[in-house]
Amino acid sequence: MRSIYRTVPRYFSDTVAPTQRRNAMAIFLTLGAVGLSYGALSQSSGFAIWQTVLLAALATSGAAELTFVGVIAAGGAPIFAVLGGLLVNSRNFAFGLSAGEYVPRGWRRLLASHMVNDETVAFARSVRGRTARWQHFVVMAVLLFPAWVGGAALGQLLGSVVDADALGLDAAFPIILFCLVVQDLKNPLVAIIAGGGAILAIAATPVLPLGLGAVASLAILIPAAGFIWAKGHIRQSHTSAEGGEV
Hints:
This protein is an all-alpha fold and 246 residues long. Helix content is 76%, strand content 0%. The protein has helices spanning 2-15, 18-44, 49-59, 63-73, 78-89, 92-99, 107-114, 118-125, 130-158, 169-181, 188-204, 212-216, 221-245.
């Protein structure tokens, strides 16, 4: 058992650069604090601690759990709470496409699929290379899971003592995640897609239920995929034409 406690910190220090370690710890602490808020909301909505912890461990998303508890707290039917959580979590489809580039196949891919979310993918995208991205994904997953589940349990026990909204944590997460992926914006196509998605999310937020504005931004992937396909088709046609002329 002692060897495990020695191995995890050593893997963390050997794999992650000092700057990235600070980013990882900032996400860890912020997520734990948001977990407190979720646990407190769950407790005030009448959920037992085992229900709060089980939901946090099985969903591991944040937005989905908060949506589920919020719908129940507002008097909504459980089926609508589940559907709302699934709809909010549909954003993970895009994250899964990104993570599929570097996550190894086999049992590790099955485990990684449970931990695909905003934080793990953004932290992995902050470095280059498939191996490095996989290592950073693992590091963030190992930090994220206990922070979220532990924060939820502690929030349930503390009740309404802690108010994460008063700490400005709703703004902290977007800022942290943007700083992690800002390097990707140097690619013109990625920058255009990200900008288009942001515009869609901002436009949809006033007219859609909480959390679904970000889901609506995924619609930008449709024209983006069409553009990439057309570009590849044209390039292939030019290559074939040049080969025919030779």
